[in-house]
Amino acid sequence: MNKSNPLLTAYRALAYVTGVGLVILTIACIAKYGFGTGTSVVMIVGTLHGWLFLGYAVVAFTLGNKANWPMGKMAWTILAGTIPTAVFFVERRVVAELTRDLAAKDEQLVKA
User: So what's the pLDDT on residue 109?
Assistant: First the structure.
């Protein structure tokens, strides 16, 4: 699995979109419940984030299955989409790890 892998690309895109949507939703919720404004923004962004999160969860689960991750790691990767800004850190770690693993497998193939 390399950086040009469509599944990894979909994961990265959905991670960023989900993360940005959640940050916007958090700010909108603070505006709504703290200051009484932005009700429609919460509804629109909340709905979009919900649907995008479902896509993120499916892609993260599929990626985890293909990479043979343990269930705990898969669960944390999926739950990162529900914690503001966590998904950005998890995405970086996942991409770095998968890239490193692929490089190690390629190196083993060259040596063989």
Answer: 65
